[in-house]
Amino acid sequence: MSKIFQLINSIQLGGAEIVAFNLAEYCKCNSTVDFEFVVVELHQTKEAYSIEKKKELVLKDIRIICLSKKSKRLSLLLGPFVLGYHLLKEKPDIIHSHTDLPDFVLATTLRLFSILNIKKPKIVRTIHNTELWSDHTKIGKYTESTFINDWIVGVSEAALNSYNNLRLKNNLLSSLNQQIIYNGSIVPTRKEHPFKINNEKINIAFCGRFEKQKGIDVLIDRLKVINKKFEGIFLFHIIGSGTYLQKVIKLSKKETNVLVYDAVPNVADKLYVFDFLIMPSRFEGLALISIEASFSKVPLIAAFAPGLSETLPKDWPLQFHLENENELLWLFDKISKRMYDLEALKNQVYSFVSENFSHSGMINAYSKLYSEINE
Question: Which pTM does this prediction carry?
């Protein structure tokens, strides 16, 4: 049996984490090699989504290791030592790291192993974003310089380009073992939902982390303008959590058509109730929620952004430039006047994601990679 650690930030609602969960659940069923997967989180979160997801993983016989039950910052200090202990104890064949902080903790562990002359496991890193260490360049260089010719997977062409640019910027050779594996999505089912839908209005959802990357700050500002211009037409459902939570709550208290929800487990199965999804992202690795919305036949209002635009057809009419407020208002004007052929848009985007972002395609590609590494 081949043991694989999936190293993530925490058990939370995020594209990278969802990919890791999917690999842990489905790769072991989809390969000639007998895989055992262990999800390793840097730090513990106590949100409702996290609690429910942990129960779900345990029911599927997927073990969970937490490197720190305290703060996120403490996990970065103690995590390398705790991770090293578990690597020595469990001797995984592969450790698969997802995103920057897991990469940092893993890099520090590997440096400790090098000092102690301990053999390291084989390393797979999935690059989930197009902005890498932009605010912490020295830590980024420290992290990247630890990795030499490991297996690199970009979730999009933009993400893989960002990895290669980062290596070049730091005078480091890029790995010879690199490829693109697009995030895939299971076609969502239709399950009971917690959302307060008003069928007399156009229901639009934002679903994701309340962080600057996701453009939640832009959405907060634009909603005020949209509500003045299109009073009584739209109902906004803001789903998730993050740094801007208090500002989102403050907005909902001022604007009666803004409803706020905690992160919702398996939200892909509940997107069908919305008329549109909106993503004002500044950048993405590959936006999984966009793919899930398209499989749910929910049209996406999306900013032009690296890693987001790749999830949509090239001629998608509901895209806007983030810095251009008038473009977004123009889109909302057309939506309010029912000027789009929504059935045609739904069918167009469903066909596009079916061809490019199938769940089985992603699982098969990673299963093949794991098998080749173990040969």
Answer: 0.81
Measured distance CA(292)–CA(295) in Å, rounded:
5
Residue with tokens 């400790």: 112
SS3 content of the chain, % helix, strand, coil (to 5): 45, 15, 35
215: region left, alpha or beta (phi > 0 left; psi from -120 to 50 alpha): left
Q: Tens of pLDDT along 148-164?
A: 999 999 999 999 999 99
* DSSP 8-state secondary structure symbol assigned to residue 308: T
Separation of alpha carbons 288 and 69, rounded Å: 28
CB 108 within 8 Å of CB 140: no
Longest CA–CA separation in the chain, Å: 68
- Which of 344, 191, 335, 183 is closest to 272 using CA atoms? 191
C-alpha to C-alpha distance for 85 and 90, rounded to whole angstroms: 9
Helix (H, G, I), strand (E, B) or coil at 202: strand
Q: Is the pLDDT of residue 32 over 70?
A: no
Give the residue from 196, 254, 204 showing the smallest Cα distance to 234: 204
* Amino acid residing at 2: S
Pick from 290, 344, 346, 332: nearest CA to 202: 332
Which amino acid does the sequence have at 17?
E
Length reported for the chain: 375
Give dist(CA 27, CA 36) in Å, integer. Answer: 9
Distance CA 256, CA 177 (A): 52
Give the domains, in start order, of the chain with CATH numbers: 2-184+358-374 (3.40.50.2000), 202-356 (3.40.50.2000)
